[in-house]
Structures are given as structure tokens and as C-alpha cells.
Amino acid sequence: MIKKLFFPIIFGFVLLFFGCGNRELKEDAAKVGDAMCRNIDIMNKIRAANPADSATLQKLHAQAHQLEIEMTIVYKEFGDKYGEKTKDPKFNKKFNRELRKAMLDCPSLSKKDRDQFESDLKE
């Protein structure tokens, strides 16, 4: 009886453990992707702004600075959470895949980058 239940229980724990890990990685990739997307958006707005409109440029640069602080925090939290795993090529491959998926939702992503990300995800 115990032998019959042992393997299904272990299998269940493995699925639960790895499922949570993948979900967490997806969520963390989404956080990084969101920050990157907002950064792309702000940089596009700065490039498109009228150079003579100092008030708009000042506002956009302040937003870019605030986002830079936020991105530093997000990257630090990611590094603290995953530590040595970030040196593992398999982990980085998984993370980069999840990040590309998250970035596809970014409306500010260039067509060239979008095409590249879609191509990368097909592999």
C-alpha cells in the first residue's frame, strides 16, 4: 500500500515544486519585461519630443530617471532571489525565453525586435 502511494506522491511534489518554480520565473520575467517595456516607451517619447519643448523633455527625463531606479530594484531583487542560478546557462535560457514571451505584450516593442523574439520562441 505504501509503495503504491509513494511514487505518485513524490511525482506530485516534483510537479508542484517545478510548476511553482516555472510560475515564479514567468512572474519575475514579466516584472523585468514590464520595466523594460516602459523604458522603451519613455525613450521613444524622448526621441519623438520637440527639442524646444523643455517642459515635456524635463518631465520625460524625470520619468526615465524614476524608472531607472525601479529597474535597479527589480534587477537586484531578481539577483537576490536567483543568485547562483543566474550563472547557469539552462536557467538563463529559460529566463530569456520567458522574458521574450513577456516582451511580446509590449506595445512599444519595435517590429524588428518583435520579429526576432517571435523567431527565437519558435526554436
Classify the beta-strand content into a percent band. under 5%
| Mean pLDDT value | 84
Query: Structural class, judged by helices and strands?
Result: mainly alpha
The unreliable regions are: 1-20
Query: Which radius of gyration do the C-alpha atoms yield?
Result: 20 Å
For the sheet with most strands, the description reads: none
Total of DSSP H or I helical runs spanning 4+ residues: 4
Distance N to C terminus: 44 Å
Q: Report the strand count.
A: 0
Helix fraction?
over 70%
The helix/strand series, from N terminus to C terminus, equals: HHHH
Topology (SSEs and partners):
Blueprint: H1 2-48, H2 54-82, H3 89-103, H4 111-122
Helix pairs in contact: 1-2, 1-3, 3-4
Descriptors for this entry?
123 residues; 84% helix; disordered N terminus; mainly alpha; single chain
Overview of the structural elements:
This protein is mainly α and 123 residues long. 84% of the residues lie in helices and 0% in strands. It is flat.
